[in-house]
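Supplementary notes for students who missed Thursday's class. We covered one full example, reproduced here. Read the sequence, then the structure, then the short commentary at the end.
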Amino acid sequence: ALYTNCLFLQSLAPVVSVTSGNIYAVLAQLGTQGLSISSDADEFGVVVDTRDLKNLVVTAGLTLAILRLFNGGTGLTHVGIGTGTTAASLGQTDLVTPLVRQVFNNPGGTLAANVGTAYCLIPAGTGTGTITEAGLFNASSGGSMFARQVFTAINKTALMTLAISWNITAT
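Structure (token representation):
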């Protein structure tokens, strides 16, 4: 698995250095754990929904990972949400219908054993609508999308806060 920032990618360097003729194949074999929408709280702080989903690391994400491993590049910093329902596919470079990107609440992510985690809160009044997709990015706009997930609708009202935890596990 792969993802979030330099710390996570550097921690995977021994795995990626396995002899292989195709770095993409090695990275793809790492696999991803994924998006955990850990709480969608209403205006009273009551959790109204919880999700635990797998996601797809897109081709641009694999390229970004390789750039981070070999020459620095820009690490992941934002989670984006949107209303698109098109299935995730390798060639996608952005959410289909983006609403907002929110910077990580834990800049640089965290690393525990072989799991990297990015966490962000999308506050009340931000990104409202019928949320059906999320992605992991290295910029507040433009930049590269690392991974994308499509899921059944989360109806985020202007009074709700959405908490997203994105985990990558190296196995």
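Commentary. The CA atoms of residues 111 and 117 lie 6 Å apart. Residues 1-33 have pLDDT under 50 and may be disordered. If anything here is unclear, bring it to office hours.
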